[in-house]
Amino acid sequence: MLGIQRSFVKKLLAPAFLAAAFGASAEVIEVTDMAGRKVSLDPDKIENIVLGESRLTYSLALLDKNNPLKRVVGWKDDLMQYDPDAYRKYLKAFPEIAEIENLGSPYTGDFSLEKIITLDTDLFILNLGNLLKAQESGLLTKLEKAGIKVVFVDFRQRPTQNTVPSLLMLGKVLDREKEANDFIDYYVEQMRVVSSVVLQKKPEERPIVFIERAAGYNPDKCCSTFGAANLGRLVDEAGGINWGSRKFPGFSGTVNPEVIFSDKLDYIIGTGANWAETNPNTAAVLLGYEATPELAQVRLQALADRKGWPELDAVKSKNFFSIYHQFYNSPYHFIALQTFAKWFYPEDFKDLDTTANFIELHDRFLPIDFSGVFWHKLK
C-alpha cells in the first residue's frame, strides 16, 4: 500500500499536475485505438510504459532509433522466450533493458496490478488479439480505476489493414509522429512494389500455398496454419492462394496432415525462429539474427523428410521454404510479402532484392544491425 501512496504523491508532483494547478492547459489529445476505443491522454505525461508483449519492441524501435525502450518499465518476457536473438541484439545496444520488470502475462494470476502501479505506469500497450482476454480478466477495468491509460495496437490479426493506423496512433501517443510518418511512407512504398504487379495476376495463374505455422516447434505435432489473416493474408496479397483461407474462417486452425496430402499444393512455407532455448527438443528451422544458412538447410531438409512429405509436389519441386516466424507480429511483414512474391513469381520479381531491403530497413529505421538468416529455400 505504501508503494501505491508513493506513486500517487509522485503523480501529484509531476509537471503536468503543477501546470494544471497554476492554470496552464494540458496538451490532451484523443486517439482511437485498434479496438475502436477512444482514449484521451497527454503525450507529455507518458513517461513510463508497460508492454503486454515485449515483442512490441519491433514497433517501438521504429519510433525512437536512439533508445526505443527508454520509457518501458515492464513487459512480458515473450521476446526473450521466442526471439532471443533479437533480445540479445537490443540488450547489447541498450544494456539497461535488463532492468525492465518481467511482469508475466497480463491475463493470469501471476500478474500484479500493484506492481504496475508502483512502477508509476502511465501507458499500457496491448495487442488487439488479446482484447477479449483483457475484458474477461477484468484487466481493463482495473487499469482504468488505477488511472492508467490503455491502447490496443494490431500488427498480427489484420496486418495489412492495421499496421498504418497502429503506427499513426503510437506516433501521436508517444510524440513521435514524424518518425511514424517517415516509416509509413517507406512501408507503403515497399508494399506497392508487390501489389502493383500481382494485381494483374488472374486466378488461374496463382499458386496454392500452404503455410505451416511454427513448423516443427513440437516435433510430433502437425499442423497449424493460418486462415485469411496474418501470414495467410500476406500469401493472398503476394499473389498466391492461401490454402487455409479456403478451409476455415478466422486467424488460424489445426489440420490433419492427411488433408494436406490429399490436396495439390504448389508451395509449402513453414515459419521458424530460435525456439531451441525455450524448447530444446524443437525441430523448427531456427531463423533469426544468429541463424546460419547451413543449419537452416539441415533443419528444413529434416522437415521435408517427415513421413509422407517427400511425396508432395511442393517438396519434389523444391518449392519448400521456411520464413522468420516473427514477421507475423511486426511492421516488417512487408519483407515477408516481398519474399513470398519473389518465390511465387521469380521472373516478375527477378530484380527485387529482399535482403537488401531488409538491410536498408535496419540502416534507416532500427537501432540494431542486420545479421543472420530470415528465410530459406530447400536445396
Written account of the structure:
39% of the residues lie in helices and 14% in strands. The chain is α/β, with parallel strands linked by helices and 379 residues long. A 5-stranded parallel sheet has the order 5-4-3-6-7, sandwiched between helices. A 5-stranded mixed sheet has the order 10-8-12-13-14, with helices on both faces. Strands 1-2 form a two-stranded antiparallel ribbon. α9 (159-173) runs antiparallel to α10 and α11 packs across α15. The model is unreliable at 1-25 (pLDDT under 50).
List keywords for this structure.
379 residues, globular, Rossmann fold, five-stranded parallel beta sheet, single chain, disordered N terminus, 14 strands, alpha/beta
What do we call the CATH homologous superfamily of the largest domain? Nitrogenase molybdenum iron protein domain
Q: What string gives the helices and strands in order?
A: HHEEEHEHHEHEHHEHHEEHEEHEHHEHHE
How big is the Rg?
Answer: 22 Å
Instruction: Tell me the fraction of residues in β-strands, as a range.
Output: 5-15%
Number of helices: 16
InterPro entries: ABC_Transporter_SBP (IPR050902), ABC_transptr_periplasmic_BD (IPR002491)
Domain Fe/B12 periplasmic-binding: 48-352
Signal peptide: 1-26
Organism: Marinomonas sargassi
Please write out the topology.
Layout: H1 2-12, H2 15-21, E1 29-32, E2 38-41, E3 49-51, H3 57-63, E4 72-75, H4 78-82, H5 84-93, E5 101-102, H6 113-118, E6 123-127, H7 131-136, H8 139-145, E7 149-153, H9 159-173, H10 177-198, E8 208-212, E9 224-226, H11 230-237, E10 241-242, E11 252-254, H12 257-261, E12 267-272, H13 293-304, H14 313-316, E13 320-324, H15 333-344, H16 354-365, E14 375-377
Parallel strand pairs: 3-4, 3-6, 4-5, 6-7, 8-10, 8-12, 12-13
Antiparallel strand pairs: 1-2, 9-11, 13-14
Helix pairs in contact: 9-10, 10-15, 11-15
